[in-house]
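Below is how a single chain appears once it has passed through the pipeline. First comes the sequence as given, then the structure the pipeline wrote out for it. We keep one example in the README because the format questions we get most often are answered faster by looking than by reading.
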Amino acid sequence: MKLELLFALASASVMAQERPNVIFLVADDLGYGDLGCYGARNVDTPNADSVAASGLRFTNAHASAATSTPSRYSILTGQYPWRKPGTGVLPGDAGLIIGADQYTVARMFQDAGYATAAIGKWHLGLGLRAGEQDWNGTLDHTPRHIGFDYHYIQAATADRVPCVYIEQDTIANRDPEAPIEVSYKHNFPGEPTGRTNRDALKLDYTHGHDMAIVDSISRIGYSRGGGRALWRDENIADSIALHSRRFIMEHKSEPFFMWLCTNDVHVPRWPHERFRGKSPMGLRGDAISSFDWTVGQVLAALDSAGVRDNTLLIITSDNGPVCDDGYDDHAFELLNGHQPTGGARGDKYSNYEGGTKVPLIVSWPAQVKPDSVPVETLVSLVDLFGSAAALTGSQLPEGAAPDSRNMLDQLLGRSREDRPWVAELGQLWTVALRTPQWKFIPAGRANAPLLSWPAIGHEGSVIELGESLEPQLFNIISDPQETTNLAPQMPEKVAEMTELWNQVVPSK
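Resulting structure:
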């Protein structure tokens, strides 16, 4: 019996070593055209480019939403965000929108014997009840309650209060002498705001972000206190990278899954001084360099731990890019020929391709053969859950990941079969459908094709949302920029796409 037990333990050890580590490295607002391997101009991204050279670069990958919270929700749950109320872009005091009883990709990895971590941007809410969090105590509903063994996260996102990190249910570096208070309804007596102290800001705002001032940058929402727990914007990338490297080194002897979400290149863009001023595109270009540095830090940690060959690294973005998103960092004026969307129409928030078409790079040196030819297969980020389940051989509970398909063969380059369609949620909650050839945007609730920021009025402050009272149909193969609406000329195709939409989109 002892000999049999030894053989069993040895076998289990081999299996543990063979199971790949998995990292979902999700950038924030990084466009399809923002990396060198996707044709970026005026910025260098050698680390991301090296990962692409060692693996696969997808040119037809899509997020399921054109904004952060719903896109991230769909990746973690395998469920489209419009199927659950309250999954729109969240304030910083929102409750966690994923219930403890909801099966997540992190829980799936946990059940498969993986150590799991969530590090970096979160923006999915914290606590059981919105606006009632005990920020100075122990939060009662966090990533730990939905499958993550460890978490070190921004409470929401960088342009919203509270501007603190949450580590294992409590504020990291909490300052008892400066308890933090948060409100999205009213300011606290005597607290300066961007609206009242604009001259004190190191980065001016253009619209919206005129409330609490933290690190000389005004945000959305009001807060006071925090003391030493408050972050400095220029150190966010370093802090995220440090905790990522630490988790890799601590778990190098067991399989791990890391949900690693950078703050770059979301506003407010104020990267470390070693990046600032280095890009001709200004702060947004500097933030792209900061993101690439983070990629390099992850690669270095994997190499130091001796686990890079057996790590499946997936690099992507939560949605499309945006230049002016509330701060006057001159991102649009300084593009100088750079195309954040890679030439696609629309931006973040949009139902057009620029809103949801994202970079997707897959590397697993032990299993994925490098291919210099771009992968044109149509894929959706909502399928990362189903594909990870196939990778680990997991049997999902009934009802789990209802919208996520097993696309593992496609992600590993073993199949070039397209997903038959992908669904894309825009800012106004209209869901578009994209097939390998056609893009269909149903008639919306309003004839509002533009989102305009009147505070500055330059061309970069206008975003095409893609919303119209009339249906829109584009032949993506012949018209990738979606310039000609074929719906009036092709009623039969519109009827066909509408029928598909009715099968796919309505809540189940």
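The mean pLDDT is 93.

See the next section for the split statistics.
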